[in-house]
């Protein structure tokens, strides 16, 4: 499933949620050639999903 | 997206208010707009670009206000240019628009100065609720990305460029964007950035070995604290025990205090007894000495008595002179006074009596000897008597002392009875012990103070370390969290990379197949298309048994135009199919896009025109075709007209041909 260390283990469900939300965030800014703020959005998504 | 109505006002050569109602009929999905060269077909296509992207792909792009409207305005008057588009998109009905207000600066000013501009977007959702997005420009750009606008609002005479090798970027961009690859690509890139720049840095920032060091230090301090606490308990116990002992000694001392006086009295009595016994011994010695020295008096008394009687007898017989000397008697007589004090007067009786003693007086020598013997005998008698007295006195004194000793003994017995049953302990020893105990308690108290201070200090140190541990734990927790987030970003990226690797080949094959199919439907010769590994859109022709790449051959513009058209058609088809499928794919959601084709038959020969015109209605759900009259002839008209749900004619007013007008303008007229 994930890395051996239980302290830093991340559940598959969280990875799936991160992926889905990241893709959606990218989808929302796909029309922009330079999607400003997307990195922060992704960082926030991961922070929210992995607490 | 499905267009409903386009309304324009004073945009470029369209004077006043004009509108186009697009065909939304499923079977007649084509809207044909006829117009001569220069009548405004490209301007009409540009209404979409201006509306969605605030951009104009025309000569003099800043010149959007209609010249006639500008000319008719007075100096200082505002001229409003506006494009509105009503359409349906993803189950919502939209009202969109862009406007610009120009102010005429001079009487001959036909451009005006832009004084204000804006856009708006409003839609009605499935519940009938009207929503106005806050940022209309962003909303407008999101319907169709600007960089893909050349696919959906294309100019036929330029579309062949898609299949030129130097334009493979556009092809790749289109495929990646519309088919979801760009989302995957961007996600991978951005996740990688976030992984490194956000979480890796955070891991480094918070990661350290301090926590383990603090825990070791904490354990050591706790151990020390336990040791000190144990010592403190020992001390407390020792103090308690010593205090108990002290209390016991003090109790004994208090008890002994009661006997102190008796003991002191006993000591005095014993001392007195000792003195008395010494005195008795002295008395005994005195008696022994007296007896030794004068004891003979007791045994010589009969002889002395007998001698005295003999002398008396002799005296009485006058054998030995009297005791009184004649001279003494004469002196008494001369003095006229007896030794008894009586006056001796001559011839008186006392005188005669004393005078008579004169005759009785012996001679001097004998008298002296008799007198001496008698005196000695008297002395012996007297000494004997004194001896007895002295011995008697000594005995009396000894008796007195013995009596006192007896009294003392009785008192000592009494005292002994009184203090009997009570330990005959030494008060001084008890006092010494008490002093030792008090000193020990003092020492223990002092050590307790020291230990308590040490415990306090250790506790403070532990508290500090615990605070450090808490901070370090928080840091470690942050580090762990950052690590987990780093891993989450990494795994998400890796999964998307795997997906991307397989999906991009799948997409390329899918697009390649679809383009081939559409191209084959239009051109049935031995040409074929291929989406290359580098995403180039290539057209091949079999010549003499070998494949010749002809995409770069200038004379093959028609094939390249058809290939480009097939490519656009393939993308609209695939995205539409995806949109309508039940597959829930975040990165490839698909969509329904209309096609606005300006002069799609530009470089095509009759055969290709026929193939394209037959295919156009099937390339998208809604197609807007802008054609010149010559292009709308024969095969094109034949194959397209039955799909044309709406047709419009661009009526161009040329001041060179119409004397009553000063400036050119175009009016849109629907053909019924």
From TrEMBL, chain B:
Protein name per UniProt: ATPase
Coiled coil ranges: 218-293, 420-513
GO molecular function, one term: ATP hydrolysis activity
Stored Pfam families: AAA_23 (PF13476)
Family: Belongs to the Sph1/Sph2 family.
SUPFAM superfamilies hit by this protein: P-loop containing nucleoside triphosphate hydrolases
Domain Rad50/SbcC-type AAA: 6-280
Keywords: Coiled coil
Organism: Halocatena pleomorpha
Keyword Nucleus: no
Gene Ontology biological-process entries: double-strand break repair
């Amino acid at each position: 499933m994930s890395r051996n260390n239980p302290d830093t283990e991340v559940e598959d469900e969280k990875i799936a949620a991160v992926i889905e939300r990241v893709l959606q965030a990218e989808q929302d800014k796909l029309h922009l050639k330079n999607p400003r703020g997307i990195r922060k959005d992704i960082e926030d998504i991961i922070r929210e999903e992995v607490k | 997206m499905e267009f409903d109505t386009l309304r324009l006002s004073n945009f470029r050569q369209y004077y006043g208010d004009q509108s186009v109602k697009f065909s939304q009929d499923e079977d007649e999905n084509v809207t044909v707009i006829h117009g001569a060269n220069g009548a405004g077909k490209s301007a009409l296509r540009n209404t979409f670009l201006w509306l969605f992207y605030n951009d104009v792909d025309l000569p003099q792009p800043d010149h959007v206000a209609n010249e006639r409207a500008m000319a008719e305005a007075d100096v200082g008057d505002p001229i409003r240019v506006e494009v509105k588009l009503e359409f349906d998109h993803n189950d919502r009905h939209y009202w969109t628009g862009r406007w610009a207000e120009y102010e005429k600066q001079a009487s001959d000013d036909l451009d005006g100065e832009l004084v204000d501009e804006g856009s708006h977007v409003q839609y009605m959702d499935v519940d009938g609720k009207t929503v106005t997005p806050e940022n209309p420009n962003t909303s407008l750009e999101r319907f169709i990305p600007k960089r893909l606008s050349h696919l959906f609002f294309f100019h036929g005479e330029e579309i062949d460029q898609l299949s030129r090798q130097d334009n493979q970027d556009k092809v790749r961009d289109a495929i990646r964007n519309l088919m979801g690859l760009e989302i995957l690509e961007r996600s991978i890139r951005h996740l990688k950035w976030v992984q490194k720049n956000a979480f890796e840095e955070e891991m480094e920032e918070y990661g350290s070995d301090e926590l383990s060091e603090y825990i070791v230090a904490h354990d050591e301090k706790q151990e020390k604290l336990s040791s000190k606490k144990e010592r403190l308990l020992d001390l407390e116990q020792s103090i308690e025990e010593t205090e108990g002992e002290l209390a016991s000694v003090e109790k004994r001392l208090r008890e002994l205090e009661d006997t102190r006086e008796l003991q002191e009295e006993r000591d005095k009595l014993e001392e007195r007894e000792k003195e008395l016994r010494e005195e008795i011994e002295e008395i005994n010695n005195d008696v022994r000495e007296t007896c030794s020295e004068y004891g003979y008096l007791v045994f010589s008394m009969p002889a002395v008595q007998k001698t005295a009687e003999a002398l008396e007898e002799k005296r009485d017989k006058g054998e030995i002179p009297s005791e009184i000397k004649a001279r003494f008697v004469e002196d008494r007589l001369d003095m006229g006074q007896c030794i008894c004090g009586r006056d001796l007067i001559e011839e008186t009786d006392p005188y005669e009596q004393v005078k008579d003693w004169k005759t009785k007086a012996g001679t001097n020598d004998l008298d002296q000897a008799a007198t001496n013997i008698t005196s000695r005998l008297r002395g012996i008698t007297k000494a004997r008597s004194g001896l007895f007295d002295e011995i008697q006195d000594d005995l009396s004194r000894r008796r007195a002392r013995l009596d006192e000793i007896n009294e003392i003994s009785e008192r000592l017995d009494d005292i002994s009875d009184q203090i009997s049953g009570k330990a005959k302990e030494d008060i001084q020893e008890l006092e010494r012990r008490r002093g030792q105990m008090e000193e020990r308690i003092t020492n223990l108290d002092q050590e307790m103070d020291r230990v308590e201070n040490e415990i306090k200090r250790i506790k403070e140190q532990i508290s500090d370390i615990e605070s450090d541990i808490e901070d370090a734990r928080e840091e470690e927790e942050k580090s762990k969290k950052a690590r987990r987030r780093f891993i989450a970003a990494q795994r998400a990226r890796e999964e998307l990379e795997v997906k991307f690797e397989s999906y991009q080949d799948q997409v390329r094959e899918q697009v390649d197949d679809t383009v081939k199919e559409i191209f084959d439907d239009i051109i049935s010769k031995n040409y074929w298309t291929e989406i290359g590994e580098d995403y180039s859109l290539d057209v091949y022709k079999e010549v003499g048994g070998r494949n010749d790449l002809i995409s770069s051959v200038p004379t093959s513009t028609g094939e390249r135009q058809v290939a480009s058209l097939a490519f656009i058609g393939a993308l609209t088809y695939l995205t539409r199919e995806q949109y309508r499928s039940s597959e829930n794919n975040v990165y490839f959601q698909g969509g329904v896009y209309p096609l606005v084709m300006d002069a799609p038959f530009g470089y095509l020969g009759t055969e290709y025109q026929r193939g394209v015109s037959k295919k156009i209605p099937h390339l998208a759900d809604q197609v807007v075709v802008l054609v010149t009259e010559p292009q709308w002839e024969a095969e094109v008209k034949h194959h397209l007209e039955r799909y044309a749900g709406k047709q419009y004619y661009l009526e161009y007013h040329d001041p060179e041909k119409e004397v009553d007008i000063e400036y050119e303008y175009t009016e849109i007229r629907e053909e019924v």
